[in-house]
């Protein structure tokens, strides 16, 4: 009997401890849930009274803030197109073509991409972008992100393509399709779920990032929302909390939506494992 | 051996070209360029911006100068600070807390499990600027939520970012990153056959005994993977900059922030590049170890 009593007390103890840790995780976020809807929000926590959407109106009227969201979208979509297209073609080639040393190539790429982190490579990346005359352009941000995310994207996609039987494309080619036709008409539709995961991951990575646009961009009209938010609270003296809270919420929305989409469609562990 | 393959070698190379070009220009070239720049006195402004001199190992000597190594705001002190930051926030913070949470989540009610997982994952997926701003508000001296709680409990309020800046970024990074370890260990624990634990229950084992003798030994491989990954990520994380900008008086200037200051505030690209090289060498050790572990596991040798 006592041993079951012991199990019972362990369960209660664990529940209390888990709840406490849960509260520790929730506390910094609680403010962020209420403040956007409180027209008199300060850094202090208070329940909005009355509940209002006035802060969002302030954001929509702030052209710098809105341009930031637009720039984030331009940079993320641009980067995603390059990563999605580049990784799909390259990982298909790594999986299906007779290029010698394919797995060595894949490992070397993975090695480089984890060694060359944003913080270690900020000097040479700045110098390279400066050297080709792309400083303070959105294109620079897009290219740098695409290069940085491609190795991991290729690694994930190659795993995925390796798991698809070659017989699909082989039977298409027996029926007379060219290799390129077999790729576009047969393989691509089968690979699509893998591409969706890679594309969502790349979008979220670029959308949320700060350092690369922060060092490569100069003019305020090209800044993405991440840099805009930072400049709102670090440079403006006293931060305009109402604007910042609502703006942060708007900016977080795509990440949360995409995350929910992926976890609903593929289970969140898959997405979790590949966040770098 | 001749085997039928779907893509010809030429098409294969053509398919690889776009990705190869981008990776070459923005991953591989920076790796070698940073080594080259670290041997020069390249700066952002002035004569050496366009026409840098070759200075040999001068930048490295200045980084590892024994006279200034332990001086605050110098490389050595930043390196020591970074090691402390990684040990405390990644190894002790993220891994241990993630492990504890994952273990407890196995035996708490489903609803509590879901809520806890959701907030931890929220801390992990939200963009870094938003998280940093939320913490900025949380730790604020006048109105912050934390001081509100302290006062309600009868403790004096603290000016956390000024008085305990290092601990602020340690707790911040723990809070931000624990979800990854939690999820990894959670799936590792749930892959252990339940009969193992049931047998231990019948024998009257305590939760700690089950953890020590069944849980931990069976997920050792996952622990190694987790430790390598979170160590590497925390070692390279720039996010604390958004909370403290490296201050006050350089007390939170971990290496990524130090690199940024040397290169983009002091305009000393040569020295900044030398720091980059040191960081990359440390990354290389971790990455090689990680690949080695992965390959061993792929070959069926249990790590």
UniProtKB/TrEMBL annotation, chain A:
Signal sequence, renumbered to the chain: none
Membrane topology: Multi-pass membrane protein
Record key words, sorted: Cell membrane, Membrane, Transmembrane, Transmembrane helix, Transport
PROSITE patterns associated with the record: ABC_TM1
TM regions (residue ranges): 12-34, 73-94, 106-132, 138-157, 195-216, 236-262
Location of the ABC transmembrane type-1 domain: 69-262
Pfam families: BPD_transp_1
UniProt subcellular location: Cell membrane
InterPro entries for the chain: BP-dep_ABC_trans_perm, MetI-like, MetI-like_sf
Tree of life domain: Bacteria
Primary location: membrane
Family according to the record: Belongs to the binding-protein-dependent transport system permease family.
Full protein name: Carbohydrate ABC transporter permease
Naturally occurring in which organism (per UniProt): Sinorhizobium garamanticum
Automatic annotation (TrEMBL), chain B:
Protein localization: Cell membrane
PROSITE patterns: ABC_TM1
Keyword Transport set for record: yes
The entry's keywords: Cell membrane, Membrane, Transmembrane, Transmembrane helix, Transport
Membrane topology: Multi-pass membrane protein
Signal sequence region: none
InterPro entries according to UniProt: MetI-like (IPR000515), MetI-like_sf (IPR035906)
Membrane-crossing segments per the record: 12-36, 79-103, 115-138, 158-175, 273-293
Location of the ABC transmembrane type-1 domain: 80-290
Family affiliation: Belongs to the binding-protein-dependent transport system permease family.
Name the record gives this protein: Sugar ABC transporter permease
Organism: Sinorhizobium garamanticum
């Amino acid at each position: 009997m006592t041993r079951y009593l012991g199990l019972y007390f362990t369960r209660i103890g664990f529940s209390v401890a888990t709840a406490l840790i849960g509260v520790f995780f929730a506390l910094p976020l609680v403010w962020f849930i209420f403040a956007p809807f409180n027209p008199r929000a300060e850094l202090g926590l208070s329940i909005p009274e009355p509940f209002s959407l006035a802060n969002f109106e302030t954001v929509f009227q702030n052209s710098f803030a809105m341009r930031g969201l637009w720039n984030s979208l331009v940079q993320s979509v641009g980067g995603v197109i390059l990563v999605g297209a580049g990784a799909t073609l390259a990982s298909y080639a790594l999986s299906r073509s007779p290029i010698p040393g394919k797995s060595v190539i894949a490992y070397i790429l993975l090695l480089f991409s984890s060694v060359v982190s944003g913080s270690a490579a900020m000097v040479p990346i700045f110098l390279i972008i400066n050297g080709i005359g792309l400083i303070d352009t959105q294109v620079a941000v897009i290219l740098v992100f695409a290069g940085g995310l491609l190795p991991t994207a290729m690694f994930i996609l190659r795993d995925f393509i390796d798991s698809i039987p070659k017989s699909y494309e082989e039977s298409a080619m027996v029926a007379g399709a060219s290799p390129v036709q077999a790729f576009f008409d047969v393989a691509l539709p089968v690979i699509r779920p893998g591409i969706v995961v890679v594309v969502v991951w790349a979008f979220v990575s670029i959308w949320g990032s700060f350092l690369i646009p922060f060092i490569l961009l100069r003019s305020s009209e090209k800044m993405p929302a991440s840099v805009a938010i930072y400049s709102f609270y670090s440079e403006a003296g006293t931060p305009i909390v109402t604007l910042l809270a609502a703006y942060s919420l708007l900016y977080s929305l795509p990440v949360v939506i995409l995350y929910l989409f992926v976890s609903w469609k593929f289970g969140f562990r898959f997405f979790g494992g590949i966040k770098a | 051996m001749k085997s039928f393959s779907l893509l010809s070698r030429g098409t294969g190379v053509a398919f690889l070209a776009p990705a190869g070009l981008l990776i070459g220009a923005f991953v591989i070239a920076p790796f070698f360029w940073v080594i080259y720049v670290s041997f020069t006195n390249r700066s952002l402004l002035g004569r050496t911006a366009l026409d840098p001199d070759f200075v040999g190992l001068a930048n490295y000597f200045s980084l590892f100068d024994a006279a200034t190594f332990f001086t605050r705001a110098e490389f050595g002190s930043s390196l020591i600070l970074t090691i402390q930051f990684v040990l405390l926030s990644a190894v002790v913070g993220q891994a241990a807390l993630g492990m504890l949470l994952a273990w407890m989540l196995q035996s708490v009610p489903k609803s509590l499990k879901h809520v806890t997982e959701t907030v931890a994952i929220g801390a992990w997926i939200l963009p870094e600027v938003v998280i940093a701003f939320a913490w900025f508000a949380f730790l604020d001296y006048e109105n912050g939520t934390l001081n509100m709680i302290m006062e309600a409990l009868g403790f004096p309020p603290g000016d956390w970012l000024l008085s305990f800046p290092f601990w602020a970024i340690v707790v911040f990074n723990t809070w931000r990153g624990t979800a990854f370890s939690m999820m990894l260990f959670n799936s590792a624990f749930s892959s252990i056959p339940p009969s193992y634990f049931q047998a231990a229950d019948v024998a009257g084992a305590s939760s700690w005994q089950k953890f020590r003798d069944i849980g931990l030994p069976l997920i050792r491989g996952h622990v190694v993977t987790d430790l390598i990954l979170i160590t590497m990520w925390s070692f390279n994380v720039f996010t604390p900059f958004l909370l403290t900008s490296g201050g006050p008086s350089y007390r939170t200037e971990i290496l990524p922030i130090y690199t940024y200051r040397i290169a983009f505030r002091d305009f000393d690209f040569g020295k900044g590049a030398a720091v980059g090289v040191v960081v990359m060498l440390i990354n290389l050790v971790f990455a090689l170890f990680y690949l080695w572990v992965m390959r061993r596991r792929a070959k069926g040798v249990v790590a």
